[in-house]
Design goal:
The protein has 1 helix and 11 strands. The protein has 135 residues and is mostly beta strands.
Length: 135
C-alpha cells in the first residue's frame, strides 16, 4: 500500500528556516515525480515545488513564483525520500504542507506545464505537516 509521510513542520520566526521530509513507501519511488503543495487557512491549495524523476543524475525542478529562490526541493531515490528546504520564511508561508507523488508516465512536459497547478493528477498524498511562521 502506497504511503507518504511528511515530517519537519513546526513553528518558526520570520526569516527562519525549516526542512520538510517526505518518506515514501509502497510504490516505485524513482518512477514518480514528487511535489510539495500547501494550503493556508481559508485559502485554496497551491503547488509549491515539483521535482522530476532522475535522468543521468539530474532532475528538473519547478517552483511557484512566491517561493522561488527561497525554497529548494530535492529527492533521495535510494532512501525513498523527498525534501523541501525552506529559507527566509515569512508569515505568508504558514499552512499545511503536503507531499504528493505522480507517475512519470505523465511525461516531463506535463510536469513543466501542469505539475504545480493540477494536483488532481497526483496519485498519492501524505497527511501533511503544519508550518507556522510567527513572531
Amino acid at each position: 500500500q502506497a504511503q507518504l509521510v511528511e515530517s519537519g513542520g513546526g513553528e518558526v520566526q520570520p526569516g527562519g528556516s525549516l526542512r520538510l521530509s517526505c518518506a515514501a513507501s509502497g510504490f516505485t519511488f524513482p518512477r514518480y515525480y514528487m511535489a510539495w503543495f500547501r494550503q493556508a487557512p481559508g485559502k485554496e491549495r497551491e503547488g509549491v515545488a515539483t521535482i522530476s524523476t532522475t535522468w543521468y543524475g539530474l532532475e528538473d525542478t519547478y517552483y511557484a513564483d512566491s517561493v522561488r529562490a527561497r525554497f529548494t526541493i530535492d529527492r533521495d531515490n535510494p532512501n525513498n525520500m523527498a525534501y523541501l528546504q525552506m529559507n527566509n520564511l515569512g508569515p505568508e508561508d504558514t499552512g499545511m504542507y503536503y507531499c504528493a507523488a505522480a507517475t512519470d508516465a505523465l511525461g516531463r512536459d506535463w510536469l513543466a506545464r501542469m505539475g504545480l497547478t493540477h494536483g488532481d493528477f497526483y496519485d498519492y498524498w501524505g497527511a501533511g505537516t503544519r508550518v507556522t511562521v510567527s513572531s
